[in-house]
Amino acid sequence: MLYDESVPPTPRRRPLLAAAALAAVCLSTAACGADGADGGTQALPGNSGSAASPSAPPSTSTPVPAKTSASPTPSAKPSKSAPGRASGPLSGKTVVIDPGHNPNNRLHTREINRQVDIGTTHKECDTTGTSTNSGYAEALFTLDVSHRLRTLLQAQGAKVVLTYDNDRPYGPCVDERARIGNDAKADAVVSVHADGSAVGNRGFHVILPAPVRGGAADTSEIVEPSRDLGTRIAGLFVRDTGSAPSNYVGGNSGLDIRKDLGGLNLSTVPKVFIECGNMRDPKDAALLTSASWRQKAAHGIADGISSYLKG
User: How far apart are CA 4 and CA 202, in angstroms?
Assistant: First the structure.
């Protein structure tokens, strides 16, 4: 949530067989292969100016870094880059993983509220993200899933770059997140998130770039490959996690198209966002806080990326 501006959800009833239908379509068509947000700042629950420590499942989530003083603009270099195996099905491919938000963003509201150019307009540098009602922060969830995803992709031979790896006091800003993928000449970029919608709104959705041209933004070359990437991830996420597509975004398709996200607008390489579930719904939160489910989520995303890269 809160990667760029949130679109107020419109609740819809979800067909009981939506998940099964999407998985069946994916697995039976060549489109899915056989292998397999920057709006206003939101404080964490109970955080009215003090730094609350999110409660994460023991030994499965990345701890919140120690409080650091505000710093000038952070380095634009990607924090972690590691090659895959010398051989493997994804050998020679570069994947950039973008863990949404940063656990310490809430300590640097002035810095993350700074306006940056996203091509068509200006938006906040970054946001705090959301959390479960028990205080498990989205930023901890996204980093944990990203680490699991990196391991799976490296095992297939891919070179993996993380835009952020718990190694900076805040950010990076959304324009820098896009630039890291561009500079890496990534074959695919996935930004990992979890939503913060109303109770009863459940399921995942993958956000695709809309056709956008303005200023530094021009998505004309990435719209179609990004749709291919996102469709494969959506279908295989259903299969690997058992989760259904969102019942409040995307008309039960598991896909949403947006033109207001700097991370997509400024990308020159195929890129999608995935909202893995709704942290504010108790049933979804039970999944998101489960280490075993987070491993399934990482598998679903990895299988989708692998399917896309293998063609």
Answer: 20
| Residue 47: predicted pLDDT | 33
Q: Is the previous residue joined to 172 through a cis bond, with omega within 30 degrees of 0?
A: yes
Q: Where are the beta strands (DSSP E) in 104-146?
A: 115-117, 122-124
Spatial separation of the C-alpha atoms in residues 243 and 245, rounded to whole Å:
7
Tokens, residue 197 = 């919608």
Strands (E), 16-175: 80-82, 94-99, 115-117, 122-124, 159-162
**Does position 212 have pLDDT exceeding 90, yes or no?**
yes
pTM of the full structure: 0.77
pLDDT tens digits for range 115-164: 999 999 999 999 999 999 999 999 999 999 999 999 999 999 999 999 99
Are 131 and 44 in contact by the 8 Å Cβ rule? The answer is yes
Output the furthest CA–CA distance in the chain (Å, rounded): 53
Residue 46, classified by CB atoms within 10 Å of its CB into exposed (0-12), middle (13-18) or buried (19+), is exposed
- 287/290 Cα distance (integer angstroms): 5
Are 133 and 46 in contact by the 8 Å Cβ rule? The answer is no
Catalytic positions, written as ranges: 275
Provide the strand spans (E) within the chain: 80-82, 94-99, 115-117, 122-124, 159-162, 188-195, 205-209, 213-214, 217-218, 255-258, 271-278
